[in-house]
Structure formats: C-alpha cells, structure tokens
Amino acid sequence: MLSRAALSRQAGLRRSSAIAQRFASTKSLRDTLKEAIPIKQEQLKKLKAEHGNTVVGDVKVDNIIGGMRGLKAMLWEASVLDPIEGIRFHGLSIPDCQKVLPAAPGGKEILPESMLWLLLTGQVPTAEQTRELSRELAEKGQLPKFVEDLVDSFPKTLHPMTQLGMGVAALNHDSSFQAAYEKGMKKPEYWTHTLEDCINLIAQLPALAARIYRNVYNPGTPLPGINKDLDLVGNYSNMLGYGANESLTEYLRLYIALHGDHEGGNASAHTAHLVNSTLSDPYLSYSAALFALAGPLHGLANQEVLRWQIAMQKELGTDITHEKIKEYLWKTLKSGQVVPGYGHGVLRNPDPRFIALQEFCDSRPELKSSPIIELVNKTFQVAPDVLKEHGKTKNPYPNVDATSGCVLYHYGLTEFKYYTVIFGVSRALGALTQLVWARALGLPLERPKSMSMDALEAFIKKP
Ligand SMILES: CC(=O)SCCNC(=O)CCNC(=O)[C@H](O)C(C)(C)COP(=O)(O)OP(=O)(O)OC[C@H]1O[C@@H](n2cnc3c(N)ncnc32)[C@H](O)[C@@H]1OP(=O)(O)O
Ligand SMILES: O=C([O-])CC(=O)C(=O)O
C-alpha cells in the first residue's frame, strides 16, 4: 500500500499534468468557449437523464430557518469552496493559479483577465491570449456619455456602492441581450448575447468605478483616458490616480483576481444568478448583486474592518499589546457587534485569500513594517482564541476582508467607503461568468419553494 505522502505526491502529479493539459491553445476566447459548451451541455444532459433522482442531501427545518446554510442547491461551474481548503477555480487552488496564470509584463501577480479566461473556459490562457483579452477590454472600456453625466450628477455623499449599482444598471441601455430578446432571439443564442454584455460590463467597470472615486474624493481633477496598451487593472489604477505606484497596482491585480469568484451561494453571486434566471439582462443582474455585496455581513465588511482597526489603533495608542487587543475584541463582542473580517458561512479555516494577501505583504519590506498591517497581523494572532472562547461563531478565523483593505490604506487609498467598489469590480468576473454558463446550459428560472411556520408545523405533525 502506498504511504499518505506517496499518495499525495501522486495526486499532486496528476493535478500538475491536468493543469498542463488545460493550457489553452491559440484560440480566441469565443472559439474556446464554443468548444467547451457542447461538452458541458452533454454532461448536463447525462446527469439529468442518469441521475436526476439521485438524493444529494436532506432538507432540515434548520436549513429552512438558517439561511439555507449547508444546502447543496445550486449549479455553479467556475469554482467550488471547500470548508477547510478554501476556494478552487476549476479545480485550481490559489497557489496553483499563482503558478500558472499569466501576470503583467514585469509583474508577478495574477492578471484578472487571465482569471476571467480560466473562470469562463476552464482553461489556462497563454500570455498572448491574456494580452488579447486585455486589449479587447481596453477597447470596450469607455462609458457612454449619458452614464458619465448620470454619475457626475450624484451627490458626493451618496455611498460609492449605491453609485456603482446605479451606474451598472444604467449601462443596460446598450444591452445586447435585451435588444436581441425584443427581436425574438431563440434560446440557443442566449449565451452569445449574455457573453457580449458580460465582456462589455467587465470592460466598463474600471472607468465607472474610477469616475465615482474621482467625483467623491478628488472632484474637479482630470480623469486619464483608457490606454489600449494597458491591462484592465493597469488602466483602473491609472484612472484612480495610483498608476505610478507599481506595488499598489500589482496588489490590485491580485486582489481583483482573488475576489473574482467564491462559488455560487455567496450573497452577491447568488443574487446575480437569481435575477438573471428571469432573463433580466446581465447589467441589471449584476447591479442587483452589487447591492447584496454592499451589506456589512458580506463585501462591505472590508470597509468595516478598516474602520474597526483604526478605531482600535486610536483607542489603544502606540504600544499595542496582544493583551490590549484581546480586551478590545471582548469590548466589541460584549457590545453586541460582530468582529468584522472574522467568521464565514462555509469556511472553517483561515481563508486562503487572506493568506495570499498576507504573503503579498510579507514580500514587501514597506508593508511588513506598516503599522496598520502589523495591527491586522497582531489581531489575527489573538482573535481566533477570543472568538473560540466567546463560543458563538462556527468559524473563528479571518476571512479575506480581515486584511484586504489594509494594503490600500498603507499606500494612501484611505477612503474606506470606496473599498467595496473595488470588490465590486472584481466579483463581476465570477458572477458574470456563471450567467454565460447558466444561459448556455439553459438553466431555468430559479424558484425555490418557501414554507410558513404553520405549514412547517403541519408537515411535522403529519403521521
Ligand atoms: C467576502 C465575505 O463576504 S466574507 C464575510 C464578511 N463578513 C464579515 O466578516 C462580518 C463578520 N462575520 C459574520 O457576521 C459571520 O461570520 C458571517 C455573516 C460571515 C457568517 O455568518 P454565519 O454563517 O451565520 O455564521 P455562524 O453560523 O458562525 O454564526 C453563529 C453565531 O456566531 C455569530 N458570529 C459569527 N461570526 C462572528 C463574528 N465575526 N463576530 C461575532 N460573532 C460572530 C453570528 O452572529 C451568530 O450569532 P447569533 O446566533 O447570535 O445570530
Ligand atoms: O462565500 C461567501 O459566502 C462570502 C465570501 O467569502 C465571498 O463571497 O467572497
């Protein structure tokens, strides 16, 4: 019998060769998808025909009243979340992706375009294919004038996430899906129009998000145009005014690639999926998703983490010991608040995205010695034990939000209320990918059955 180590080595080798086989050819994104779709359609047909009645799990009353936690009830192609290991994108872990997905010329971090290609097709793109996608996105990145005017008319005091959601909804003015539907488009064509809308939206998000930043925090300053030779984040960073900061630009690439997808059940991705299942177009679907992301138990937690850590720093002064952090954590918990950035609906270990972002900090001397990053690290050393002792949360470990904002803060992007907008630029990669797959696979309107408490009790009493 093979030892555990040998079995794990074998599994590792099998995985590396599977990764190698998944290197895409020289085909375009659309041709790669055209090849992948019939294979998946066949897989779905077979699953339905051969296993349509196979039981996957029980539905307990706890599931119904507990936010459907633990219910396996959605089809989601691009990623799967393991409670211990964390996320895998088409089977690739974060370290796998960091090894195989192309980076920017001269950079090291994953280019979000290469993550998008992987999520959409299940294949690892070449550097050349990634560059082509970057160029396409840059060419399509300009906002229509009326959306610029709309965003410019918002009061500066309107939360940046509200502005983003409204801007994205307004972009549906030019939806290819909606226009084709009005002309009587047939079901097999749904995915192609969905894809065009999704690519256009991903392309336009940086200009929209940067405009919101400029209007709210630097009104009256000029906004640079889109440079066709830059990648998506290169342009975003440039438009935000941080283009000269290569470290921050690289961090944004990693951040946006890693936040792209987290399987289907998270509130933002699930919202996009639900809304799009009504054949609402991708812009409206993603706009709805952004308003789910804007909640403090979900994406907005990254804003809340910084606010909480800064308040802690202010209260505890310069000599911040583990003991003082412990007291501050108890004070937060006793006041009935959650510790932002800790806990998770599925994960039961430190989030590997948190680890990857911490490793980024460890790789740069200026970040290693940054007071805010030191504070996040020290909090990580104390918080899990405090949360275990508190005894409520099923997962006392940090999620990605526990650290994602601190690098932005260190490099001078200190406006916390903007942070979830960056998350919103990222989550489009995965949420929109699934819309393409849902339409290519002909998935139906999502409509679970709900029950009242009276109906549940009557069901329980039934002999
Ligand atoms: C990108 C992301 O969306 S990652 C998540 C970002 N959100 C946060 O960081 C906010 C803080 N964390 C939380 O509120 C939660 O852990 C969530 C929302 C992420 C997950 O919620 P759940 O799956 O319901 O967590 P769980 O089953 O562990 O909750 C059990 C109890 O522990 C509490 N709990 C969970 N996490 C925390 C926390 N970080 N601090 C204090 N209490 C917590 C819950 O509020 C709940 O209390 P209740 O029984 O009084 O209602
Ligand atoms: O998976 C979840 O429920 C929340 C999360 O971490 C994400 O959406 O990135």
From TrEMBL:
Localization per record: Mitochondrion
PROSITE patterns: CITRATE_SYNTHASE (PS00480)
An annotated Gene Ontology molecular function: acyltransferase activity, acyl groups converted into alkyl on transfer
GO CC annotation, single: mitochondrial matrix
Entry superkingdom: Eukaryota
Enzyme active site: H298, H344, D401
Single Gene Ontology BP annotation: tricarboxylic acid cycle
Entry keywords, A to Z: Mitochondrion, Transferase, Transit peptide
Lipid biosynthesis in keyword set: no
Stated family: Belongs to the citrate synthase family.
Full protein name: Citrate synthase
Lineage: Eukaryota, Fungi, Dikarya, Basidiomycota, Agaricomycotina
